[in-house]
Structure formats: structure tokens, C-alpha cells
């Protein structure tokens, strides 16, 4: 069964008359929420690419001063690259599969927090025996991308939660 | 503009393939693997040379004669140092792709490390 977008649009306009200011933002939501997911996906992809690049091109492939449960700092870089790619993919696909959006956004936030936390540890007390205080361009790019991912996906989750609590302003009414 | 409606117009196959395609293009454009910056470091190995690659000194132990020049080549893209534990010699910051020459005059066995990445260690023996 297909959704008649014109009908959906009219219903949303009607509901704004009923609910007033609360619905003024629903149009903004439908414009901004997909963009938040897309920008978040791009940021996660940038984080993954930086770690891929460091692993394959900058010598981070062979560092294993310490090991925890089979995980070394090198493997953590490789794991980050793969996980970031999968999360970015899930975020983009969630534009067509809405059920995937919340888990993907949560995974994206967790990914960004974990990556940022790991970065802070490597620059302070060390992580898995690795410590480095150099300001390399890749690290700065990744740190900015992590903050962007946190901001966009966190905002998406906050907006979704508000909409959920409100019962959702744009309930879909299908045409007969 | 309603982005939701705009996105519904994008074909599903494009949405599904977008991220893999972007990732593949990024990998292909920037080149897979590699990492050697040969422009200044040169290539090949030579006697009396310690090469830094993948956060490791190679060879890990080396013997040279007193008065010999030891060449240190950094083939990583980030900065390392080769610093004697007891302070007998120090390459200073050696940026990626750079090399430095150290003259070792006094016989003995010296352990060294990278001051930035202290887990990187090695030994140089200076024979009379």
C-alpha cells in the first residue's frame, strides 16, 4: 500500500491548526531529522576512514605493546574502521527503513563516545600500552568528526524522544 | 523543502549502496595500503642503518664499529625519535620520511627507545 504524500501533507497542515505552536516545528523536524542522520553518517564515515588510513598507511598496523582480551591498539584501529563503516551504512539505510534509525543512531553515539574516549586516553594515561601526544592532522579531523557525530545523532535521538513522548505530530493517515 | 519527501524519491538501491560506494571511492582514490614515504627516506636497507617502520626499529639490535655513522630512517608518517636510554645519543624529533645520521664514538652497548612511543625499543652495540 503506498502513501499519498499530498494527503499526508494536508493532514500535517490540518493538525498544525489544531495543536498550534507544537506543530510549527514538525515541518522543521521532517526537514532536519533526515539531515541529522545524513550528517551523522558522514561524520561516522570520516572517523572510520581516518582509522582505516592510520592502520594501513601510517604504521598503526603493528603496534601491540599490551593486549587485553585479544585486543591490541592496532586491532582497535581496524575494528573502529569496520564498525564505523557498518554504522554509517545503517544510518543511511535507516532513511528508508525507519525501524533501523534509533538503534543506528544509538550505535553512532556510542561509537563516537568510545572513539573520543579512547583518543583522550591515548593522549593522557595511555590505552593498551599506547600513548602519543603528537598533534597529527588525522587526529584533529577525527576528533572534530566525533564531536559532529555526537551533536547530530544526539540531537536526532533527542528530537525523536520528544516526538515519541508527544505521540508524534505527523501521524500518517493513509488514503482510502 | 520537505527532506522526508525528497528522500523518498531517491531510489532504494542508491540509498543502500551509497555508503559502500563512498567508502570504496575513498579507498581507491587515496590508494590501498602503502605508507612508505620514499621521497626523502629513500628505499632499501643499508648497513649501519636503523629503519623505523610500523612503530618498530629494524633491526632491533645492531652492531657498528666505533666512529661509524649510524643512519636512522623514519619510514612511518608520524614523528619518532631514537634516544639512548642513558642519554648517550638522541636523534631528536624525526618527522615521517626523514633520516638522521648519528656518529657513535664510544664502544659499549646502548639500549634506546622512542621518546614519543616508549614501547619502541632497541639496542646498538658499538665495537672498538
What does this structure look like?
The complex is a heterodimer of chains A (176) and B (128). Chain A has helices at 5-19, 21-57, 73-93, 101-122, 137-166. Chain A is 71% helix and 0% strand. Chain A has 176 residues and is mainly α. The termini of chain A are close together. Chain A has five helices and no strands. In chain A, helix 2 (21-57) runs antiparallel to helix 5. Chain B is α/β, with parallel strands linked by helices and 128 residues long. Helices cover 23% and strands 32% of the residues of chain B. Chain B contains three helices and eight strands, in the order H-H-H-E-E-E-E-E-E-E-E. In chain B, the strands form two sheets. Chain B has a four-stranded mixed β-sheet with strand order 2-1-4-6, with no helix packed on it. A four-stranded mixed β-sheet of chain B has the order 3-8-7-5, with no helix packed on it. The termini of chain B are far apart. The relative contact order of chain B is 0.19. Chains A and B meet through helix 2 and helix 3 of A and helix 1 and helix 2 of B.
Please write out the topology:
The complex is a heterodimer of chains A (176) and B (128).
Chain A: H1 5-19, H2 21-57, H3 73-93, H4 101-122, H5 137-166
Helix pairs in contact in A: 1-2, 2-3, 2-4, 2-5, 3-4, 4-5
Chain B: H1 3-8, H2 12-30, H3 38-41, E1 49-53, E2 56-58, E3 61-65, E4 68-74, E5 83-84, E6 99-104, E7 108-113, E8 121-127
Parallel strand pairs in B: 1-4, 3-8
Antiparallel strand pairs in B: 1-2, 4-6, 5-7, 7-8
